[in-house]
Records
---
Amino acid sequence: LNNFALPAYFTSGTQINAQIPPALAPGNYQLVVHSIANHVASAPQTLVVSKYAPSVFLNAKGQVMLFHDDGSYVDEDNPATRDEPLHMYASGLGPTTGGTVQAGALSPSNPLAVAHGVQVFFGRTDFKQSAVIVDWSGLDPGAIGVYRLDLRVPGFHGSGPAELVTVRVGGVDSPSTGPVVPYVPVD
């Protein structure tokens, strides 16, 4: 990225997982993929780096990476309920305070790298009853570039079998359209 090597964590014929350096300023950058084995490089592509680009993690089946406190998935058979601790995973929540975050290194556990101003909605973002309590948000200790959100559904929250999941930070919402949209059942 702009002639600096990025830490890569996974590569395949169709996917590369790499970390954008946490201290990189928002802007447009040239990205070139180099094949060390074949000694070739891709054509430069412009990559837009934003301060905030929230996105909810989904598993291979398109299910939101949202878990009950016992580690089980929140799903149709086991919906989210009022006041229980929930844990959700996301990316793009922006800068953190507290623990020092370095490119290519695991997120710190002491002190934690905390993300601020994160809001979560299960349902329409313009309904007060859709807001979820965010008890904590920050980089998941021991992971790279993965944010964990500790949540609770308040008592006055709406319910339904498929509530749209939206993460908002810095005035930017996670995608609510596209090939896979994150939904969650709420009891």
---
Amino acid sequence: RSQSAILDSDPSKFDRLANPIDPKDGSIEKRVRSYLHVNCSPCHVEAGGGNSKIRLDLGATLAQMNLLETKPSHHSFGLQDARLVAQGSPQRSVLWHRIQTTGEGKMPPVGRNVTDSEGAKLIEEWIRSLPVPKAAPAQTNPAQ
């Protein structure tokens, strides 16, 4: 391939998004990160019109995402000991709840009236795969 006239490097050298629903197209983390990048990151940016402190773009490291074991600052939906992502526990994870609900608090908040069941299943599988922390104190970042 020749170098692009627009890009500084050959496009094939850039990281690419994975197909979130194809288990053969990368690790579960890569597929989840691709899903969140496409479906969530356009709105969930710091100072992006909301008060989100999470980063869901592919360029953020897992730590920079501010998701894992972070207490929700807006709404916990009655989830016991809720976290944005409760490692190993989708039932306590606001992210999973927001993706799979069609009611108040659904994400995205407009433009959808059905659940992305494949996306919700992917997020659930990823959360279950995350190691449960050993009594680590929860972060308290305003997020969502």
